[in-house]
Amino acid sequence: MKKPHLLFCLLMIFSANLIHAQEKTETSSDSQKVSNGVFVAAKKIKDSLYYLTYRTNNVVAFLGRDYTVLIDGFDAKAAPQALTVAGRLSLNPVRFLVNTHHHKDHTGGNAYYSDSGVTILCNELTYNNIWADTNAELIQDLKKQRGELAEAMKSAGKNERGKELGAKLNKLSEQNLDMALDYPSMTFLDQFKMNLGNETVTFHQVLKAHSGSDLFAYFENNNVLATGDLFFNGKYPFIDEDFKGSIDGYLEGVKKLISYCNNDTVIVPGHGPIASKSDLESYKRMLEYTQKGVQMDYLLGKTLEEVIANKSITANFDAQGFGNGYVKTQDYVSMLYRAAEKRYPRRK
After folding, report:
1. pLDDT for residue 113
2. Phi, psi of 238 (to 5 degrees)
3. Cβ neighbours of residue 297 under 8 Å, at least 6 residues apart?
C-alpha cells in the first residue's frame, strides 16, 4: 500500500463528499460521553477550538467552516467515543486527524478514524515510527534469526554447511516487511501549514525530543499552542530512548514552544491541564534544574543508586506531584543519569 502524495490527495478530498457520515448536533461549551468504561469530555478553549480529555490525555479539535480537524486521537479504546464527541461539537464532519508522534495513546485509534472517513496526517518520520512500533515483534524476530544464523555461519567456517548457512542469511537479510500500515496516511516533511479559512495552523517538527520525531501545532489567529508530548504539564516527561528521544532534544523543544508564546497564549499539553506561557517556562526550569543536578552528581563519581538516593534534586518537584504521573521520580532520574553517561563517558 503506497502513501498518496499530499497535495494531490488534499485536492481530491476537498472535491469529494465524505463517504462516512458522522453524528452532528449543536451543544453547549462542554460535551461528554461515557461508553464501555471510557469517559471523554470536551471543553471550549475559544469559539472554534475545544480540547477533548481522556484520562490525562488531551486532543485538540478545531471547528472549521467546512470540517473539523483533530490534533491526535487517543488510543483504540477511546477513539469511537472521541469521534462521537467531536462530531457533536459542530454541524461539519471531522475530516482530518494529525498525529503529533507515534505512541499508541495518541495514534492507537488511527485505524478506527480512517474507517470512519477521517484522513490521517503525519510527517514521514512519525509514519515510519508508527510502522516500526506496530511491527516491533516481527522486526525483533527477524533480527534474532539473522543473529543466530550469523553465529552459526561463523562456527561452521567455510565448509558446505557454512555456505548453506551463508545463503540462508543472505536471503533473510533481503527480507523486508511491507512498509505500509493497514490504513492510508498522508505524510509531509518537517513543516506543514493548513489554511482553514478562518484559521491558519502551522505544524513544526522537533527531532530527538520526546521521541525521534514530534510535532507541535500553532493556531495563529486563536493564539493556541497544541504541544503533543513535548509538554507533560505538572509531571516528569517520558523520553522514548528506544526511538531516539533525548533530554537535550526535549529541552530544545520546550524552548521552541516558548518562542511561540506570549502572555495570552493558551497551551494545550499532551497530558495535563491547560497551561500558560509562565507554566511552560516553569517546566523548562524544572528540566534544567534536575538535569544539571543529576549531571553534577554523576561527574562527582556517584553511582545511579546514590543519585536516586539524593532526594534534594527532585524534592521540590516531588512535593508538587511531578513524580505521581506516568513517569516516576526514580525512572526520570535514571533517564537523566543515562544521558549524563552518554555526554560524559567515564574512562575504564
Report:
1. 98
2. -95, 125
3. 306, 307, 310, 313
